[in-house]
Amino acid sequence: MSPAERDGPAEGALDRAAAILGAFDPAHRELTLAALVARCGLPRSTTHRTAEKMIRLGWLDKPAERYRVGNRLFEIAGLAPIRLELREAVLPFLQDLHHATKITVQLGVLDGAQILVVDKITGHRAMPMLSQVGGAIPAYCSALGRAILAYSQPEIIDAVLGGPLPARTPRTLTSPVAIMRELTTVPERGWAVDREEGNIGVSCVAAPIFGPLGSVVAALSVTGPSPLVRADRIGPAVRMAAAGASRAYSSRL
Confidence class of residue 122 from pLDDT cuts 50, 70 and 90? Predict the structure, then answer.
């Protein structure tokens, strides 16, 4: 029996590669073979054989007997429009906002019910609990998510709020009604707020970024220790940065 037949007709090469790549996340950046097998759900022999092929393609690296995502995937990811057009247009405004606040700034886009962190400039204070670039955070309890959802179509909002809304901290809003109430305040003031709903002691203020047709495409934020992230002081700066980013992004398309 050939290796392909042993793996079964339901699992093609891309399915196996996707399962292996899916085993990695911000908390599992390097994995032994045993850990990779446990997390990807494939047989050990299939995992080893597929991983070796992915190493030859540059999709994985294997320093010191641990697998990790390869540089070739990083190069390919850099070609995605979201990284080229959006990031390049918004980066100067992220830099200005970081310079003004000295606090971590982030750029995120909606990906299902999650916010994908597209770019980030870290502040002077290390905050390891925050997602790294390429990581995801829940949309329902993050300022980035709320800034986008406040201008999204009803079906998108319903899909996000219709799923699980677990409490990440004692302050997390888990009621769809309460979250909708928060969303309705965003257009009036121009920014969304997360008051220690993702991490105790950490607050966030975010504002939406719009495309040339007026639809929301992303959001940028300032995130840091709650005493330093006061919405009444930081909100206007975040709103202005997002407005400038919207104009810059729209002019590139």
Answer: confident
Two tokens at 43? 């047989």
3-state secondary structure the chain: CCHHHHHCCCCCHHHHHHHHHCCCECCECCECHHHHHHHHCCCHHHHHHHHHHHHHHCCEECHHHCEEECHHHHHHHCCCHHHHHHHHHHHHHHHHHHHHHCCEEEEEEEECCEEEEEEEECCCCCCCCCCCCCCEEECCCCHHHHHHHCCCCHHHHHHHHCCCCCCCCCCCCCCHHHHHHHHHHHHHHCCEEEECCCCCCEEEEEEEEECCCCCEEEEEEEEEECCCCCHHHHHHHHHHHHHHHHHHHHHHC
List the structure tokens of 226: 């709650």
Structure-block tokens of residue 116: 């994908």
What's the half-sphere exposure (Cβ side, CA atoms, 13 Å) at 222?
A: 31
Average pLDDT over residues 51-61: 93
Measured from the Cβ of residue 112, the count of other Cβ atoms closer than 10 Å reads 12
Give the residue among 32, 57, 58 at the shortest CA–CA distance from 47: 32
Cβ distance 114 to 138 under 8 Å?
A: yes
pLDDT grade for 202, boundaries at 50, 70 and 90: very high
The overall longest dimension of the chain from CA atoms, in Å, is 68
Residues belonging to the chain = 253
Question: Under 8 Å CB-to-CB from 172, ≥6 apart: which residues?
Answer: 141, 166, 197, 198
Return the ∠ at Cα 160 (arms to 155 and 164), rounded to 5°: 140
Q: How far is CA 163 from CA 94, 139, 150, in A?
A: 31, 11, 17
